[in-house]
Amino acid sequence: MIWWALAFLLGVVFLWVATLNAIVLWQGGFRRKKTSSWIPLIAGLSGSLALVVAPLPQVRRWWWIPLILDWGSLPGLLFTLGHSLFGRADE
User: Fold this and answer.
1) pTM (2 decimals)?
2) Mean per-residue pLDDT for 22-47?
3) Crossing angle (nearest 10°) for helices 42-53 and 2-24
4) What residue spans define the domains of the chain?
5) Collapsed DSSP state (helix, strand, coil) of residue 38
């Protein structure tokens, strides 16, 4: 029961922070409005941990999916790296 509770809490954190990151992406990236910054890695890591500790062995192999789905994890970090390396110098 403890593993279910832990997986549930980590999943809730993933959904909450990933939603906030998606709002920042939508507002700042697509609507070009001023937003707060995104929260790096918290959602992706909590979602990954939720899948790892869940007492269902068949979901453990999908631990990497939250790191791809959350803007504040792999996509955001790759965007930031790309912008740092290839972005315009006068921005």
Assistant:
1) 0.81
2) 88
3) 150
4) 40-91
5) coil
